[in-house]
Write a structure and sequence with these properties.
single chain; 461 residues; alpha/beta; Aminopeptidase; Aminopeptidase i, Domain 2; 9-stranded mixed β-sheet; 6-stranded antiparallel β-sheet; binds manganese (II) ion
Length: 461
C-alpha cells in the first residue's frame, strides 16, 4: 500500500472487546493495590510468585540456571526485574521491556508536623513534575512506611477505605482571590503552600501545641510511632480512591498513576505470558524516573547490571566480557507514556506527529526537548525491526513526538540502557492530563500495548 493507513484500534478489536475489557479490569486492580513504588513492587512480586517465579537469592542458592527458569530480583523494595531465561546464552543479549513505578506525588518533609490558627498540618515537598494547583481541594490519602526507633518497619495507609478519613490541601475562596488570580498557573499555589490539613481538635488538658499532641496521640495509638520517627519515614501523599471507568461507554480509565504503571503492568503481564523464549526476556520496573533516575533504586544504579552478572555466573563461568556483550546485544522497549493528543489544547501538539487515543501503541523514535536535547534517538534499523514485529502480530500502533517542537519535552529511561550499547526505543501509550492527580488512558490502547510487548518478547526476526 502506497499510503500508510491509520487504523483505529477499537475498529480492529471489535470482535475481541471482552478480552480488551478484562485486561483493563485486571490493570485497575493492580492500580488500586499499588499506589506507591513500594506497594507496586510488592504487587508485581506477588503476581510473579503466583506464576512460579523464584527470587534471585533462591536461584543463587540452587547454583545454576537453565532455559525457561523464571526469576525475580527486587531492589530495596522499590524496583524489580522479572526474568525468563532464554535458550541462548545471556551474552547473545536480552529483550527488555523497561518502565517505572514511581509517580509524581507529594512527600512529607522530615519535620512535617505543625499547627497554626487551630489547624494541624504536615509540611510537604512535592516529587516529580506536578502542576501544583491541581493538588488542592481534592481528597488525598497517606501511604508509606515508618521505621521506629527499635527498627520495626510499620506500613502506613490512611484514606483509602471509605470509613477512614482523608486529607486535603486548601485553596483560597474566589471571593478573596483578586491577587491570586493575577498570578501565573505555576505560581497560583506555591510549593510551600502545599501543606496537608490533618486536624482541628486539641488534646484535652494540654495548653500548648495541643493539636499537634492530639495528632501524635492518634498516630501513636495506630502505629506505635512518636514524632522523631518521622525522621526515618517515607510518607507519600496521593489522591484517595480507586481507578474508575471513564465515559458513558466505559472506554477509558481515570486514575492516579498511569504514568508509568500502565506500561510497567503491560510489561509484567507480557512476561508472565512468555514461555521458553529464544533470548532471555526481562520486565524491568524501576524507581526514581520522575526525578532523573538517580539514587540506588533508579535506572542509573548498578542494580540491573549486577543482577545480570549474577545470572551470567549462574550460567557457568562469569566474565566481564560476557556482561558487556550481554548489555550491548540487548534490545529494549523503553516502556513509558506519551502525551495523548488533546483537542482542547491543539496549540501544544503537532497533529501529524501526535499520539491519538484509540490508535493503539505509541512508538517514539526520540523524546528530549529543544532540538532533541538529551534524547535517545532510536536507530532506523531497530525501528524497522520493532515495526515488523508489531505488524506480524497485528498490533495497532502509531508514532508520536512528545508535543510540538520547542513547546517543552521530556525524557524516559531509554538513554540509560542505550549508553550500555543496547538498541532502545520508547514505546507506550498516550495519556491525557499526564502528571495530574487523575490521568486518562484508553482501554484499547493499553491492550495493544500488552499485545505489542508480548510480541516483542516472543517474535524473533
Ligand atoms: Mn512522568
Ligand atoms: Mn513516565
Amino acid at each position: 500500500m502506497l499510503k500508510r493507513e491509520v487504523k483505529n484500534a477499537w475498529e480492529f478489536e471489535k470482535n475481541n472487546l471482552e478480552e480488551v475489557m478484562n485486561y483493563s479490569d485486571e490493570y485497575m486492580k493492580f492500580l488500586d493495590n499499588g499506589k506507591t513504588e513500594r506497594t507496586s513492587c510488592r504487587e508485581i512480586v506477588r503476581l510473579a510468585k503466583e506464576k512460579g517465579y523464584i527470587s534471585i537469592e533462591e536461584a543463587i542458592e540452587k547454583g545454576s540456571i537453565k532455559p525457561n527458569d523464571k526469576i525475580y530480583a527486587v531492589n530495596k523494595d522499590k524496583s524489580v526485574a522479572l526474568f525468563v531465561i532464554g535458550q541462548n546464552e545471556l551474552q547473545k543479549g536480552m529483550k527488555i521491556v523497561g518502565g517505572h513505578i514511581d509517580v509524581p506525588r507529594i512527600d512529607l518533609k522530615p519535620n512535617p508536623l505543625y499547627e497554626e490558627a487551630n489547624l494541624g498540618f504536615f509540611k510537604t515537598h512535592y516529587y516529580g513534575g506536578i502542576k501544583k494547583y491541581q493538588w488542592a481541594t481534592i481528597p488525598l490519602a497517606i501511604h508509606g512506611l515508618v521505621i521506629l526507633n527499635d527498627g520495626t518497619k510499620v506500613d502506613i495507609c490512611i484514606g483509602e477505605d471509605e470509613n477512614e478519613p482523608v486529607f486535603c490541601v486548601t485553596d483560597l475562596l474566589p471571593h478573596l482571590s483578586k491577587d491570586q488570580n493575577q498570578k501565573s498557573l505555576a505560581e497560583g499555589i506555591e510549593g510551600e503552600k502545599l501543606n496537608l490539613l490533618i486536624g482541628n481538635m486539641p488534646l484535652y488538658g494540654e495548653e500548648k501545641e495541643s493539636i499537634e499532641k492530639n495528632i501524635l496521640k492518634i498516630l501513636n495509638e495506630k502505629y506505635n510511632m512518636v514524632e522523631e520517627d518521622f525522621l526515618s519515614a517515607e510518607i507519600e501523599i496521593v489522591p484517595s480512591g480507586k481507578a474508575r471507568h471513564l465515559g458513558l461507554d466505559k472506554s477509558m480509565i481515570l486514575s492516579y498513576g498511569h504514568d508509568d504503571r500502565v506500561c510497567s503492568y503491560a510489561g509484567v503481564k507480557a512476561i508472565l505470558d512468555t514461555e521458553n523464549p529464544l533470548y532471555t526476556c526481562v520486565a524491568l520496573c524501576v524507581d526514581k524516573e520522575e526525578v532523573g533516575s538517580n539514587g540506588n533504586t533508579g535506572m542509573h544504579s548498578r542494580f540491573f547490571e549486577n543482577t545480570v552478572c549474577e545470572l551470567i555466573s549462574l550460567e557457568g563461568d562469569y566474565s566481564d566480557l560476557k556482561l558487556r556483550r550481554s548489555m550491548a546485544n540487548t534490545k529494549v522497549l523503553s516502556a513509558d507514556v506519551s502525551a495523548g493528543y488533546d483537542p482542547n489544547y491543539p496549540e501544544a501538539y503537532e497533529k501529524r506527529n501526535s499520539a491519538y487515543m484509540g490508535h493503539g501503541l505509541v512508538l517514539s523514535k526520540y523524546t528530549g526537548s529543544r532540538g532533541k536535547s538529551g534524547c535517545n534517538d532510536a536507530n532506523a534499523e531497530f525501528m524497522a525491526e520493532v515495526r515488523r514485529i508489531f505488524n506480524q502480530a497485528d498490533v495497532i500502533w502509531q508514532t508520536a513526538e512528545l508535543g510540538k517542537v520547542d513547546q517543552g519535552g521530556g525524557g524516559t529511561i531509554a538513554y540509560i540502557l542505550a549508553n550500555c550499547g543496547a538498541e532502545v526505543i520508547d514505546c507506550g501509550v498516550g495519556v491525557l492530563s499526564m502528571h495530574s492527580p487523575y490521568e486518562v488512558v484508553s482501554k484499547v490502547d493499553i491492550y495493544e500495548m500488552y499485545k505489542g510487548y508480548k510480541a516483542f518478547f516472543n517474535i524473533n526476526l
